[in-house]
């Protein structure tokens, strides 16, 4: 997902809804209706993914029936040479890890970029955003002319493509146009549908965001 810091959402997006922004085409939208071991029972999952009263907006509970339990947030063994706090994106397995140290990590289920929008390498969190405004870049408007309706920016909100929290990835002082963002579409976790960005369930993204300062290292593994 090509994005910039001017990202946000409103109640009715007309021709261009939240999912079409994220996934880039009507065909991708159609795919949303298709379609490890469970280690967290429903009561625990409901506690993790219940409603959140988040200052500006009331975030609804996640419909956990649409999420494979293997993608629930979990503390796991994940030996790594990376320092505690580092974020590791594993698009091949639809996970994001926060390294906790001593061979442990917090693991989150994710959606990732579709073919043609995947990338890998080292980056860092150059800036952070809460309920950020979203403006489609020129590349997206060229692919999706309907996105031009938001050329001057879409205010933050529940329907905004970036959702409640956003981590913007940078390399060598420049914004890469990729983010880790909050997704309100639980059925997309474990799929390749975005235009390159990585989405976590909103409650997971808030958890990661609160633990992640600017300049945190991010490692994106090959798909």
State the gist of this model:
With 223 residues, the protein is α+β, with helices and mostly antiparallel strands.
The averaged pLDDT comes out at 82
Q: What is the CATH topology descriptor? A: L,D-transpeptidase catalytic domain-like
Return the structural class.
Answer: alpha+beta
Number of strands: 12
* Oligomer kind: single chain
Radius of gyration: 16 Å
Give the fraction of residues assigned to helices: 10-25%
Quickly count the helices: 5
Query: What's the domain count?
Result: 1
Distance between the termini: 16 Å
Q: Please give the CATH class.
A: Mainly Beta
Largest sheet: 8 strands, mixed, barrel
Structure description:
The structure is a single chain. This protein has 223 residues and is α+β, with helices and mostly antiparallel strands. The chain has a single domain, classed as L,D-transpeptidase catalytic domain-like (Beta Barrel). 15% of the residues lie in helices and 31% in strands. The protein has 5 helices and 12 strands. It has helices spanning 18-23, 26-31, 42-48, 138-143, 202-210; strands spanning 52-54, 57-59, 74-77, 87-90, 95-101, 104-113, 121-130, 165-171, 174-183, 192-194, 198-201, 217-220. It has an 8-stranded mixed β-barrel. The chain is globular and about 45 Å long.
